[in-house]
Each structure stands twice: as structure tokens, then as C-alpha cells.
Amino acid sequence: MTEGARPSxxxxxxDLEEQNNNQDKxxxxxxxxxxxxxxxDEKHEERLKNLEEQSIKLENTILKTxxxxxxxxxxxxxxxxxxxxxxxxxxxxxxxxxxxxxxEFKMLKWNTISTIGMKVSGALLGLLSxxxxxxxxxxxxxxx
Length: 144
Hints:
Shape: rod-shaped
Number of helices: 2
Order of helices and strands: HH
Low-confidence stretches: none
Structural class: mainly alpha
Number of strands: 0
Radius of gyration: 60 Å
Distance between the termini: 189 Å
Helix content: over 70%
Strand content: under 5%
């Protein structure tokens, strides 16, 4: 009961017990929240760890694929370069052969023309110098 306006000791103890019970309930509530937050934090840590592992796997896959791709490209480039060099070498050989053949054809043509010219002129000179042609004309004119 009260002593005037002030609460009695019994009421104060009861109020303090209620406050203590309320504080205990709040502490229990906070502890439950902390436990729930720790579980959520563990799940987040686990997800983060999984993401890091997947990131490392992805990075290794990319590096491996990149290395394989570079190796394939290098092999293809080397093969193509060798084929192009061989083709170029063949083309240059064909061009050289064609040029040589054209030169030999021109030389043969002029050699044939000069040989025929020499034979014709030799035959004409032979006929003229031996008198055979003159004799032929003279006989044709006289005996007609």
C-alpha cells in the first residue's frame, strides 16, 4: 500500500521484478535475433564461399580455353603460312619458267628467220654467181 504519494517497498520490488522480467524477455528476444542473424550470416558466408569457388573455376576454365584457342590459332596460322609460302614459291617458279620460255621462243623465232634468210640469200647468190640464172634468162629470151 502506499504511504501517501509514494509507492510502497512491495510495489517497488514488484515493479522492479516486472522491469527485470521485461528486460529478460528483451534479452531473450535479442538473443533469438542474434542467433537468427548468425544463421543468416553463415548462409551468406557459405554463398560467398560458393561464389568465390565458382569464380575460381570459371577463371581456370577461361584460362584453359584461352590457352587452347591460342594454340589452335598458332597451329592454323603456321599451316596457312607454310601453304601460302609454298603457293607463292610455285607461282614464282611458274612465272620464271614462263619468262624463260618466252625468251627461248623469241630466240628460236629469230634464229629460224635468220636461217631461212641466209639459205634464200645464199641460194640466190649461188645462182647469180654461178651464172645459172643468167643462163636461164638468156636461153629463155633467145629461144622463144
